[in-house]
Amino acid sequence: MALTASGRPGGNDSEESALAVGSAKELIESTAKVVLAERGLPVSDKADLPELVRQAQQALGLHPSSAAPGPDGTEAVKRILGGVSTIAAGVSIGDPHAYAARRRCR
Predict the structure, then answer these.
(1) Claim: this prediction has a pTM higher than 0.70
(2) How far is Cα 50 from Cα 90, in angstroms, rounded to an integer?
(3) Does some domain include residue 7?
(4) Is 25 inside a domain boundary?
(5) Assigned domain for 1 exists
(6) At 52, phi and psi to the nearest 5?
(7) How many distinct structural domains can be found in the chain?
(8) What is the C-alpha to C-alpha distance for residues 57 and 62, in angstroms, rounded to an integer?
(9) Fewest C-beta atoms under 10 Å: which of 3, 15, 33, 88?
C-alpha cells in the first residue's frame, strides 16, 4: 500500500493538494502576524492574507516600495520582493472559501 506525502495510507491527490495549500496559507498568515506583533504593530483579524503579507513586509522594510536605490541591483530586488507578494496572493486564492471559513472559526 502506498503512503501519501503526509504518511497516510491511500489518499487523493486533490485532498493532498488542498491540505498543502491550506497549510501554506496558515504558515504565511501566522508568520505575518508574528512579525507584526513582534514589531509592536496592530494585527487585524479582518485583514486578508495579501494585506497581512504587505504589512509584514513593510514592517521589516522588505516591501518592494521600500527598496532603496543602490549598487545591489535594486530593480531585481524589487522584482524578487514583489514575487513574494504575488506568491502569497496566489496561495490565498487557492481555496478562498475554505480559507474564509477557517478564519471565521477563530
Answers:
(1) no
(2) 9
(3) no
(4) yes
(5) no
(6) -60, -45
(7) 1
(8) 5
(9) 3
